[in-house]
Amino acid sequence: MDRLKLTAQTDFCSSHSLGAPEHRREELGEVCDIEHGHQYFLRASFEGQIDPKTGLMISRAEIQTLLEDCIRLPLHNRNLNKIFKQTSGEAIAKWCYESLQSKLSTAKLTSVELIETKKNGFHYPAL
Amino acid sequence: MSRCTLSRKVHFSCLHKYEVDSFSEKENIETFGACYTKHGHGHSYELVGYFSGKIDEETGMIINLKDVDDILKTATSELDGKHLNFEVEKFKTKVPTTENLVLHLADHILGSMKSFPQIELTRLRLYETEDLWVEWENG
User: Which residues pair with B68 in a beta bridge?
Assistant: First the structure.
């Protein structure tokens, strides 16, 4: 049985500052608590059956709309701290997964990968 | 004996048209979005093949890289420079989506692998653009 996974990527530029909760400052130290920005890349991976008529696992129009409506519109050029309580890569990846999941109609969203920098990324759910 | 997976990348370019003849224009737009274009459009595809096998004690390799290139290039040369909907038999009746294209390449490469029984094709990843790709796993 062939297994296929389709991945589509979008990007968004946002600013945020992290920071440890007051009562854990000693334990965690400084956690990027200066405001800064990233060009994030969000990769969404889908699994599903290929429609024999269209040859598609998921409609390209649906992918374009999903990524625009669920990811870029709410996050691009925004200060994430004004939207979310937590703005860690882990928290944003989870939010992106849930945002896409809530709007998806045909294929199954298997995971997202949020690339924060060239050196770090976040998979949700965990691998 | 240690096993290892080798990956190798090849490029090819072709044209395709996303359209279902029996659909109205509205249905085609709803299904294919910006990919639905009157005369089709082209991509520079990138295919990455993943091959697994035992490391040969004498050569330190699982397979000669030249053989891997031959396998991948034989599969993609049939598509390279073509308008898939008009020039490749299978895609005259089947929409040449990235999903269908990777399945077609998997069939072709699995056929070539019969000459290399010590190696298994474990995965193919086909990039249509840097923002969209489909991965096939040998299951």
Answer: none
